[in-house]
Hints:
GO terms for molecular function: hydrolase activity. The structure is a single chain. It is built from 12 helices and 10 strands. The chain is α/β, with parallel strands linked by helices. An 8-stranded mixed sheet has the order 3-4-6-5-7-8-9-10, with helices on both faces. Strands 1-2 form a two-stranded antiparallel ribbon. The radius of gyration is 18 Å and the shape is globular.
Amino acid sequence: MGDITDAAAGNDPAPAIGAILMQIAVNPDGTITRPEVPLVPPSSAGGAAVSRDVPLDASLGTYLRLFLPNPAPATKLPIVLFFHGGGFVLFSSATVFYHAHCEAMAAAVPCLVASLHYRLAPEHRLPAAYDDAASALAWLLGGAAQADPWIAAHGDLSRCYVMGSSCGGNMAFFAGLRLRVDYSPSSAGAVRGLLLHQPYFGGEERTPSEARSDDDAMLPLEANDKLWSLALPEGADRDHEFCNLTKAMAPAALAGLPRCLVTGNRGDPLIDKGREFARWLAEQGGVEVVTRTEHEGSHAAELFVPERAHELFAAMREFMTAADGA
């Protein structure tokens, strides 16, 4: 498939992300051919942040890419466990624009970012990505992170946040549900909040006449349908709880969920679902929710437009400051 480097280099994210999604080819044998997206190694060179990779599960090929502000401040930093987007099918913590985004986040918030390289569908359908997210959470809360030199020197393990963008926002939500199941209250309490940016949920497929006018530019209807068909468990439809949780999940399941920040942009075709999700959390689940969904821009704009990234980082800082003062 074609290289999308030129598209991703522009200031308008719509052609870049739309081009990537539309280049996913499903082969006759059920495998897929992914578009060529540049990957970059971790960097120890001078810049706004430095990075290095930490193995998570060598048998599965998963790892965490850590990002540390450069220079690191004298005070301990909050830790953000980050899950990238890509419809559960694309990208990596090493993908050029997610790497750059995490560098900018670490420097601007500031925070220590641990970005998860997780298994992708359809080779590993859901819940594989959720299992990898749970393993990353166990690394963070279960003691292994304490042995990492960057965490030990610069991270505050009492101030952790679980964050995701798009499908990563979906993953962060399900990781949050694991807290009260897998951890003691004292361990779970180290997670001060969930940061859910443009979380990727949906219900039944829509016809083109039902789609918003900007869907074709930003998240083409056929690409959205393709992503869910590749990611959901075999035989599952779009009303599965992984996709349509406001219909399939009982509000009682939300008991004990940490405080949530739900963010998104007005031009994102996912924005209506995001707002519905935030209302469901607050009104049906009794979760404390902060909503910031009125910024300009479209889906994934923060990856390519600095102003959108700065708005997201400002919302993160505000949310974290309030959590620190609680």
